[in-house]
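--- STAGE predict ---
source: upstream dedup step, 1 unique chain passed
mode: sequence only
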Amino acid sequence: MSRKILDFYREFSMYTNPGLHEGALKKLPNDIRKIGNLVRNSLVHRTTLAAGNIGTNADKKFGDMEKMPWYRQSEDDILTTASAMLAELYRRDKRGFISNRNVKDKLVLTCRFTAVLMASILKSKGIPCRVRAGHAPYFDMGRLGNVSADHWINQYWNSKEKRWVTIDVDGSWSMDENFDAYDIPDGKFDFPAGAWLNIRSGKDDANRFWHAKPERGLIVVAWSLFYDFHCLMNDEVIYAHVPEPATYVKFESLSQSELNEIDNLARLMQKPDENFRKLQKTWNTNRSFRLLKGGLL
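--- STAGE serialize ---
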């Protein structure tokens, strides 16, 4: 792996920048699993908050939801950056990352935010880390059946083994399959570049892919593809923001040439390190893939 690429993933983005808390993050344990457990113990997923003490939280490992104040809601739209999450985490309990955080003091955030927070910690320690977006088929989705659900995870560079290690901190306590969430085997996570190309070539079923909007089909893979592209460029955008080709208004009317252009992006993303320079060139020149829509954008 080139030093340029590793240095790039050591850099903070405006989302992963820890701000005034960088020093505190450097003092956290160096063991990836221990860091992940501290992060996971600091957060409650909005679906857990809504479901209460059933399902994956029947043993109350995420905390007793009956002790959560009745007015608490998802904070995804409020705490969009690592610096905001950290500031609120320390405001609620000045001890910060602790194993016995009261449930009322936990942040209510989903997977993208867990991954951003994890990346912020590892980058603070000088460990190359990147957020990745895609779909996870290893959760029990109940009535939805066997779907691959939209999900955000991390990859960090293991300097001893000289490889990217794929980890899922958010899902580590609630997976429906027996493999290590801190070293996910190849093929267990559906990265969107491969999913997009497989669907386009008829090798996979678009309806296997689900998004929490809720929505199914090729458009949700398009969302994940562009989320993942931005993540690979150290720009971990929020859920509401996608480039114009992935918006409802534009997606259904994409021309064949526009679809082919997305195909080409997906091919590059299948080997992001090998194609790093080409991906950066696309990032720096392609307005339709970079400029976002959503909210006031």
